[in-house]
Write a structure and sequence with these properties.
Strand content: 25-35%
Order of helices and strands: EEEHEEEEHEEEHHEHEHEHEHEHEHEHE
Bound molecules: zinc ion
Number of helices: 11
Number of strands: 18
CATH superfamily of the largest domain: Medium-chain alcohol dehydrogenases, catalytic domain
Oligomer: single chain
Largest sheet: 7 strands, mixed
Distance between the termini: 12 Å
Radius of gyration: 20 Å
CATH class of the largest domain: Alpha Beta
Structural class: alpha/beta
CATH architecture of the largest domain: Alpha-Beta Complex
Length: about 325
């Protein structure tokens, strides 16, 4: 089969490789779409960061969508679109016992720590497939993984209905989070984004936008009940805390490996919270994400920049994401 394998920085090759070995209890699905994520881009540019060296060359792709070839459980028809689970815990620790495999200290993230879905086939656990309703197209369902990130991030906020929510960073995840916040009943959702093209997309989706780099615009709104930091820009933690009302919640979604400081006394006295969010659970976050994508509240169309063939993954995928700062999600059609 053909697969996109990471060999080292800026060395991603489309290669003919054997079909994956299928472990006991698993089955192959035919891959349909795979989104390219910021994490993939970072691996491509300066990796291996998360990718284990000993597994290279490794098939990338963690935002995947496949079709059932044959369901060993006899539930789904061949051809049904499914999102296979991507987070595999060790199965034998405090976190795995509590079904929190995403924070298991030795979990695997398929496509980031072991072979992923940017290929014609992938071995998957059929007990952990999430079925995509038949009216949802592959180009919409491929947003399941970033949507799960959005759902999980918002579920970390104690209350959304009737509250004021800010999102910093109007990229794919930021604008999915903004839409989910609105779908969850937020009274106001403001998107902070300096790029005018992204601002226009956010406004097209019905959001008020402000430029966080212009002091007057940053100061424009009163304090928020929650702020979801999706820009990944260095030094935003202290600044984001300032925009929160007392006892408000800052959720860090975009990440960076650096340390950051903030005023501890103000933080303690104001009883604000800083919350991390990362790995999503297939039966909780992914299922909720697909249910949202299947409904009318979420519009992914303006976030889908291009759908490209597997052979074009470098030229029209990674190279474009490097040069085009206005690009949102680029999706690989693994069937062509
Ligand atoms: Zn990702
Ligand atoms: Zn574990």
């Amino acid at each position: 089969m053909r697969a996109a394998r990471f060999h080292g920085p800026k060395d991603l090759r489309i290669e003919e490789v054997p079909k994956p070995q299928v472990p006991e209890g698993q089955t192959l699905v035919a891959m349909e779409r795979v989104g390219i994520c910021g994490t993939d881009l970072e691996e491509y540019l300066i990796g291996p960061v998360i990718i284990p060296k000993m597994r290279m060359p490794m098939i990338i792709g963690h935002e995947y969508l496949g079709r059932v070839i044959e369901d060993p459980l006899g539930k789904l028809k061949p051809g049904t679109l499914v999102v296979p689970d991507g987070i595999v815990g060790c199965g034998n620790c405090y976190y795995c016992d509590r079904h929190e495999e995403g924070i298991c200290k030795s979990y695997e993230c398929i496509g980031l720590t072991c072979d992923g879905g940017m290929a014609e086939f992938m071995a998957t656990d059929p007990t952990r497939w999430i079925e995509v309703p038949s009216h949802v197209s592959a180009d919409v369902a491929v947003f399941a993984e970033p949507m799960s990130v959005a759902v999980r991030a918002l579920n970390k906020v104690p209350t959304i209905p009737g509250t004021k929510v800010a999102v910093t960073g109007g990229g794919t995840v930021g604008l999915l989070i903004a839409q989910v916040a609105r779908a969850f009943g937020a009274a106001q959702v403001v998107v902070y984004e300096p790029n005018p093209v992204r601002q226009a997309v956010a406004r097209g989706l019905g959001f008020e936008t402000l430029n966080p780099l212009i002091e007057k615009e940053w100061a424009h709104c009163d304090e928020f009940d929650s702020l979801l930091e999706c820009s990944g820009v260095k030094g935003t933690t202290a600044k984001s805390l300032e925009k929160l009302r007392n006892a408000g919640t800052l959720v860090l979604v975009g990440f960076r490996p650096e340390e950051e400081s903030f005023h501890l006394l103000n933080f303690v006295l104001s009883e604000k919270r800083i919350q991390g969010t990362a790995a999503h659970m297939w039966d909780v976050d992914v299922a909720a994400a697909i249910a949202l994508l299947a409904g009318p509240a979420i519009d992914t169309k303006p976030l889908l920049t291009d759908v490209i063939a597997l052979d074009e993954v470098v030229s029209k995928g990674f190279d474009r994401l490097i040069s085009d700062k206005n690009a949102f999600k680029i999706v690989v059609d693994t069937t062509r």
